[in-house]
């Protein structure tokens, strides 16, 4: 951080002391990012069978969710609430980090809904459009259809940006049944993240994203050849190229940079009025920590940023058990608000909280 930055002189811990400092198993950011997927945790399908649910969000658009309930059949009044989990770019409801958090939430007594972002999880046939990193309409309408219990929402990567953007759009009108939200490895400035992906050390990640996105376009083209062309493929060498060729025109943005500017959640952070935990490693390979140098983290009492020096992107492999640090901190935050707490997580001073370790 630069001298006099917005994160200087913030409180270094919650007054209630519930967030633990992160002691990394590995200090290499790339190994954290890659190896976390090999720490599998499965949902017990016998105890928590999967129920498939389709949510109608717009005319001609449905999103697919996989639901698990404590009694195996329907939402239960005895549950502390429902955990709604949103995946990242080119992921799905079956992504390792989604399943891991879902299993932990079920163990803690929550009902769980693993949501596929539009077009993801094999649902290209359920919508004529693509998706993007600021598309909040689906999450907003799903949230409105889940009013029967207290709701806790966790988002990873672009799912985290979508979640933070939605919370900012809600502002003071956030639904009362949404008790808390958690954003893990959120690219709150999409343009900065897209440029970081272009750097040589991140080429592996960008190539993988582009490979998966090309497959999505190929499936869309097979379903809707009049709407999708493969011709731009030969000119796409970066995420920015892809967003210029497909994402921006699909959703009416001028170009990729216009899309990034309009859809980054950073500009809406001051408006959030839902208790919000943001977990962000300072060494995230493609989310420069400088983007979190924002006064909102000092001035908005609803925001709490926990930023360990290590952890990679959706990694957070811990030296000690339980191994997955972000899962445990997310659960602690949600359990705090599920217990009927009405006070802010941080000390009652009208400033936000930050833990930089």
- Overall mean pLDDT stands at 90
Within CATH, the superfamily of the largest domain carries the name Alpha/Beta hydrolase fold, catalytic domain
Structural class estimated from helices and strands = alpha/beta
Low-confidence stretches: 1-17, 345-353
Strand order of the largest sheet: 1-2-4-3-5-6-7-8-9
The rounded distance between the terminal residues' Cα atoms is 13 Å
Quick one: biggest sheet? Answer: 9 strands, mixed
Radius of gyration: 19 Å
CATH architecture of the largest domain: 3-Layer(aba) Sandwich
Determine the strand fraction and express it as a percent band. Answer: 5-15%
- Taken from the alpha-carbon principal axes, the silhouette is globular
Q: Which fold name corresponds to the CATH topology of the largest domain?
A: Rossmann fold
Write the layout of secondary structure elements.
Layout: H1 29-35, E1 51-58, E2 61-68, E3 82-86, H2 96-107, E4 111-115, H3 137-144, E5 151-156, H4 158-170, E6 178-184, H5 190-197, H6 203-223, H7 239-251, H8 256-263, E7 276-279, H9 296-299, E8 303-307, H10 325-338, E9 353-356
Helix pairs in contact: 2-10, 7-8
Describe the structure.
The protein contains ten helices and nine strands. The protein is globular. The chain has a nine-stranded mixed beta sheet with strand order 1-2-4-3-5-6-7-8-9, sandwiched between helices. Helix 2 (96-107) crosses helix 10 and helix 7 (239-251) crosses helix 8 (256-263). The protein folds into two domains: 29-189 and 269-356, Rossmann fold, CATH 3.40.50; 195-263, no CATH class. Helix 9 links the parallel strand 7 (276-279) and strand 8. By secondary structure, it is of the alpha/beta class. The protein has helices at 29-35, 96-107, 137-144, 158-170, 190-197, 203-223, 239-251, 256-263, 296-299, 325-338; strands spanning 51-58, 61-68, 82-86, 111-115, 151-156, 178-184, 276-279, 303-307, 353-356. Helices cover 30% and strands 15% of the residues.
């Amino acid at each position: 951080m630069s001298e006099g930055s917005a994160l200087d002189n913030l409180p270094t811990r919650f007054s209630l002391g519930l967030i633990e400092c992160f002691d990394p198993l590995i200090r290499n950011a790339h190994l954290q990012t890659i190896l976390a997927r090999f720490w599998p945790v499965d949902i017990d399908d016998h105890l928590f069978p999967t129920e498939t649910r389709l949510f109608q969000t717009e005319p001609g658009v449905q999103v697919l969710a996989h639901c698990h309930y404590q009694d195996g059949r329907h939402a239960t009044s005895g549950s502390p609430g429902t955990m709604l989990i949103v995946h990242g770019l080119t992921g799905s409801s079956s992504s390792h980090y989604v399943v891991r958090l879902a299993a932990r939430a079920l163990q803690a007594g929550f009902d769980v809904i693993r949501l596929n972002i539009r077009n993801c999880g094999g649902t290209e046939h359920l919508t004529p459009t693509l998706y993007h990193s600021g598309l909040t309409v689906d999450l907003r309408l799903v949230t409105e259809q889940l009013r029967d219990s207290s709701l806790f929402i966790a988002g990873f990567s672009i799912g985290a940006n979508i979640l933070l953007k939605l919370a900012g759009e809600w502002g003071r009108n956030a639904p009362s049944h949404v008790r808390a939200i958690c954003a893990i490895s959120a690219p709150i400035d999409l343009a900065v993240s897209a440029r970081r992906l272009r750097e040589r050390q991140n080429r592996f990640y960008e190539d993988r994203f582009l490979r998966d996105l090309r497959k999505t376009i190929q499936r869309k083209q097979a379903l809707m050849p009049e709407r999708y062309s493969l011709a731009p493929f030969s000119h796409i060498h970066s995420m920015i190229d892809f967003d210029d060729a497909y994402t921006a025109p699909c959703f009416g943005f001028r170009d990729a940079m216009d899309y990034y500017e309009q859809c980054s959640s950073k500009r809406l952070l001051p408006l959030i009025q839902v208790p919000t935990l943001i977990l962000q490693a300072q060494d995230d390979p493609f989310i420069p920590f400088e983007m979190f140098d924002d006064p909102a983290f000092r001035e908005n009492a609803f925001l709490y940023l926990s930023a360990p020096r290590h952890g990679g992107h959706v990694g957070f492999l811990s030296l000690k058990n339980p191994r997955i640090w972000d899962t445990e901190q997310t659960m602690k935050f949600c359990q705090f608000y599920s217990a009927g707490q009405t006070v802010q997580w941080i000390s009652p001073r009208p400033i936000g909280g930050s833990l930089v370790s």
